[in-house]
Amino acid sequence: MHARRATTPEPGHRSPHRPLHVAAPGAAADPTPPRQPSPLTTDSYPEGPRKVVVVLGEVDYETAPALATALREALRTSDEGVDADLSAVRFWDCSGLNVLLRLRREALAVGKTIIVRSPSRVVRRVLTLTGTAPLFRPPQPERVPRLERAPSAFGGHHGSPADN
């Protein structure tokens, strides 16, 4: 086995997690593999003041631009931001994470947010390993500390006569 320089990609390189077209034994290799369905599909719909973008398939360096386009369009047409439903994502690498990080920066600049809904196992793993998962959670409402009732000048708590 020989080593290749990491900076020189192999011609026609694809992710090792994506299947390659292989000719059947004894069959001549067809230079044009059969057309396969796109490894990434997106759909969006409004939900109140937000847009939900449902992502199905694989997100890598080949499909990340399509994901960025879909998310950016949803952000542009939403009032408050985008919820990305990533429950059906089968492959997710740093290309997908970079799309989310760039979009988050754009959203915050215009007062909107990006939330990841139901990340798949592979998405959750990347977000957890990189420490970026909290960036894509819904904002938590600020909690107002509960004030304890102060004792009255007469030694009891303020309240109705029935409380005494």
Automatic annotation (TrEMBL):
Top-level taxon: Bacteria
Region of interest called Disordered, as start-end residue ranges on this chain: 1-47, 137-164
Protein name in the entry: STAS domain-containing protein
Biased composition (Low complexity): 21-30
Residue intervals of the STAS domain: 52-131
InterPro entries reported for this sequence: MlaB-like_STAS (IPR058548), MlaB_ABC_Transporter (IPR052746), STAS_dom (IPR002645), STAS_dom_sf (IPR036513)
Record Pfam families: STAS_2
